[in-house]
Predict the structure.
Amino acid sequence: MTSIRSDIDQVVEKAVLKEPLTVEDGKALFETSNLLTLGMAADRLRKDACGDTVTFVIDRNINYTNICTSGCKFCAFYRKRNAADAYVLSVDEILEKIKEAVELGATQILLQGGLNPDLHLEYYEEILRKAREKFPGVQRHFFSPSEIHFMADVSGNSVKEVLARLKDAGLSSIPGGGAEILDDRVRKEVSPNKIGWRAWKDVMVTAHRMGIPTTATMVYGLLETIEERVRHIMRIREIQDETHGFTAFIPWSFQAGNTRLAEEFAERDMDPGGVDYLKMVAVSRILLDGAINNIQVSWVTQGVNVAQVALSYGANDFGGTMIEENVVKAAGAKIQYLPPEKIVRIIKAAGRPAARRDTLYRVIEEY
């Protein structure tokens, strides 16, 4: 035990001194049982990077279609096109949902959907143009890299051409969805019909070079090894070092309910648990220190209490009010809209000041 403590202390010291960390360093952080040391180190780095204020955004997640050809084993949301509950929202239906969110103070709309071959690039452009026209003050945080790559395939355009058309129509920024684990061994097991990690990277790098900011995400608990978790975070850091286009990193755990992956591994406990989540947040802060300042908690998957504790393990952002969310809910998560005043109380109960932000982490209001 003494040697393990010594190894962890050395890694933490390297992080605090801003020395480069290796994959082996990352594995040591994940494998330690000394959660307190991890938390203290991550909290110190968080304070140095972005201070004590915890931010949040008023937002809504809209899913324009659940029809998807990818068929990921970890997804309980998607449907085949002939399913009784398959749907595609019209542009007017999407605009009505945005209107409802704006009336509740939303400054960000996250729009994502399945890989639906019946939808054409003009559909996405029309959504963007009309959303920009009717709600110019709302950040159009639309379309994951998987969707953008799929749009390119369906339309016969390059990723850069698709991004240029979407940006011209009003795209503000891109969510980091579809990253899951950035390792093709894992992706071939859980999402064999989805783009590989290099294609995900290509969309992000192209977007960043075109001046389109994005977030980065991670879904862990998908049969990956500890080393693959570390490599995911390191790959996010490498992209950031190259482009500086990521605004935040958001890790969350796989939600197993109603998924084929959980059925295939029924004998296995697919819930990593709260301690593993706190470790994930802390290690993310340590490995990404100096590259990505904003680490967001996932109260949607972890619950409010664990998310609140994560504010002492390196996180500085409480995410969004989540006026609507469908994908995680389909996997059995019990999600309720968190009004701003409740988020502020949660943050202040953790002993931290609270502020409402926009998508680009500019403070709108302090509490």
In short: Residues 1-5 have pLDDT under 50 and may be disordered.
